[in-house]
């Protein structure tokens, strides 16, 4: 009798995802971000994970419909848009691509260039928001929303309360923006760059939507289901490289060592990971470690990466080819 292999594949994904999820479900370490009051209102026990494939399938477990703010995960997608809109030379003149090893909100610039080290720390992300505002002006947030929504496969919305809270309390980010202006890394008024940056951080997503955004990166910038071209092909390559080296705050080195896929995390509790040409993986759990990464998310990604051999340099080479043979 012929076996329906698609069912076996589905089960393999579901089982692996569930195993990764269950391995962290009882882990209550970490704390919800409290730098703005709005974020403390999150339910700390929320936990969801999703895997979206470039062939258009989705696998989900837990609280995958719970909304949370994208926060720093937006930095990767905004950088990708800036590369497309302004071109890599202009972007390179404003922000570097070196890991800094410093916390995300450090007020530190590359001593050689006076530019932010990379677009995944706040200083670099505010410079990137400045580039987008410089090129698109008042339309820049709508442009970002449209592209993010194409990638997510769903119309996203803004969390107004979080935006207002970020805006009211973001004095450190304001200081960074003024230093960027002083260093010629910003060509628009700091308030315009900051308004866009605070808004982009306050976009609501679910784990499912974030997985599709990751799958859109994995699929060379085109959402695998709606076929909308959300990101430019060349810009995706450059963005994945920066995510690989700088995406997990000052844990990026450990992450590359242990998990070995490009990823970006945010203090809202989200992590997106990309297995190039194959998968977008997202986790959401708002309990953060001291570096700002979701505790359960990091743990679950490790289990999943080990299970499938996702690490880019997996010596047994079952990794990518193994997944490729599974996805349909
Ligand atoms: N809105 C946050 C900030 O700029 C983002 C922090 C994060 O997710 O790393 O402080």
Give an account of the 3D structure.
It is globular, with a radius of gyration of 19 Å. It has helices spanning 5-25, 73-86, 88-94, 122-136, 140-152, 160-169, 171-182, 190-201, 207-218, 233-246, 252-258, 295-308, 319-326; strands at residues 48-53, 58-62, 68-69, 157-158, 203-205, 263-265, 270-275, 279-284. It contains 13 helices and 8 strands. The model has no long low-confidence stretch (mean pLDDT 94). Helix 5 (140-152) packs across helix 9. It starts with a helix and ends with a helix. The strands form 2 sheets. The protein has a 5-stranded antiparallel β-sheet with strand order 2-1-8-7-6, with helices on both faces. A 3-stranded antiparallel β-sheet has the order 3-5-4. The protein is an alpha+beta fold and 328 residues long. It has one domain (2-327): DD-peptidase/beta-lactamase superfamily (Beta-lactamase).
Our measurement of the CA-to-CA distance between the termini, rounded to an integer number of angstroms, reads 21 Å
Small-molecule binders here are:
glutamic acid
Low-confidence stretches: none
Instruction: Give the total of beta strands.
Output: 8
How many separate domains make up the residues?
1
What can be said about the biggest beta sheet? 5 strands, antiparallel
CATH architecture: 3-Layer(aba) Sandwich
- CATH fold name, please? Beta-lactamase
Strand content: 5-15%
Classified by CATH, the class is Alpha Beta
